[in-house]
Amino acid sequence: MSAASIDPITLEVIRNALASTADEMALIVMRSAYSPVVRDIMDYSTALCDAQGRVIAQGLTLPIQLCSFPRIMRYVQERFGADLHVGDILIANDPYGSGGQHLPDIYILKPIFVDTALAGFAATVAHHTDIGGIVPGSVAIYSTEIQQEGLRLPLVKLYEKGQPVDAVMRIIEANTRSPVEVLGDIRAQIAACHVAEEGLTALVRRYGAGLLAGYIEALHDHAEALMRETIRALPDGVYRAVDYIDGFGETPVPLPIAVTVTVAGDRLDIDFTGTADQVAAAINCPISLPESASFCAVRCLSRQDIPNCEGYLRPITVSAPEGCLVNPRYPAACGARGVVGYRVFDAIMQALAQVVPERAIGGSEGGPYLLAAGGVHHGRPYVLNEMVVGTWGARAGKDGIEGISNPAANISNQPVEMIETDMPVEVLAYGLVADSGGPGEFRGGLAFVREFRFLADTRFTLRGDRRDHPPYGLEGGAPGAPSAHILVRPDGAARSLPTMPMESFPARAGDVFRLVGAGGGGYGDPLHRAPERVADDLREGKVSRAGAERDYGVVFCADGVTVDPAATSARRDQLARSRA
Known about the structure:
The chain has 580 residues and is α+β, with helices and mostly antiparallel strands. Helix 5 runs antiparallel to helix 6 (179-207). The strands form five sheets. It has a seven-stranded antiparallel beta sheet with strand order 2-1-5-4-3-6-7. A five-stranded antiparallel beta sheet has the order 16-17-22-19-20. Strands 8-9-10-11 form a four-stranded mixed beta sheet. 30% of the residues lie in helices and 23% in strands.
């Protein structure tokens, strides 16, 4: 189909029809899922692919998962080729043999046929409550190889010509601590694929297979053109940055995430040479996640509405040395890999802030903090998967947003009521921490605090970060406050836990775990923040009176709420001189 024959109105109608189908898939998963991690936290993604396996629409879900679909679809083409039939459904979770990210993320893929011709694919991925392994929740920092992390599923057929392959379901059921939730969530993913099949079939019937294929090709080309235009607006050059993972264990060694961003005309290359080597812990990050984080960071710079299809990836290349933290070799453990993916996003933002600081964002909380706990209560096994988010760094003209997912994610905190209804856990506190946002002309978002009291004996594992290397500020903004993990016994004895412990912890009924995230980084000189905004922060409990004077040089009158202009001017002069 020639470009001249493409009707822009029809192109937009088809684009939105595809996007609506992908979003409908996401709603079906959310409303049909059994587990809180899918139903409430919304740790899943949906997409539609064309007959060549290229993504043509993505649901409004997790950016950090979405670019795993192009990689796994390449495995589908290689593994099955023409051996796909009406009624087939595929399943996989293996990062090394199928293009996945970690074992809890199970992919359900369905080829869509219209009149026996392959029209496309429905694609879903969801984080499942438990897929076996050495700890409940299947995410243990101290795993040293993937075989310790749970059941590995190569790319196989879950349904063949419409008939379920019961052996696969039985294998999954026998290898999870939460069979009801896991099998229920798989069925929710299958239901979403059926909805996608109906939506894509309706488009083929309306436009015809040939015409629709032509418009899909035009959609890829349109997305590519818009991305090239975005890249051309960046100055040519080579931009480097390094951010750090704090490391793991009681004596953590920082792990650099090094990135080199090269802009040349309408092409952009992202290279991770200089990043730490893979490690004997579960934070190794298969390449599909760094790819996703990279594409997400670049898209965040665009001021245009770029279609969520694979065409926009064409002008961007991502590379990493084999055997490094962001491209590990088999059999490296990768269950807790997410923290590295979020740091990839941060490192790229720091590199691009050198040329477009007005479009970059200060460091965010470092990605969702994971708490996985399990045991037996009243004779019934339980698994708590808690992913706590979050806050953003500040940006030009805007304070950081708190109570929101990381920019590279799109998940939610689990409702307190659901935790307390389903689990032997009581949530004692949930809120924001004053003075934790990085000071700046625009303040970083506040850190969160969440406290859990265990009501039954349990064992739990953690994944956090941003304690030794708190979220960075930009353009003179200060870093956010560091994170903290504290276990408090009933007698008041408290123990600070590592952000990434190489062990699981026993907790007795009555023990309290206090999780404090990191605050977002600030943007711009804190002494340039309007005193009236600092006063608003004081009234809202976001900064204390002492913090206002210490960090922003704002002094209040005796009433504690009215800014004292003369004292503020003197204090700011004093702070400015102390910096010189």
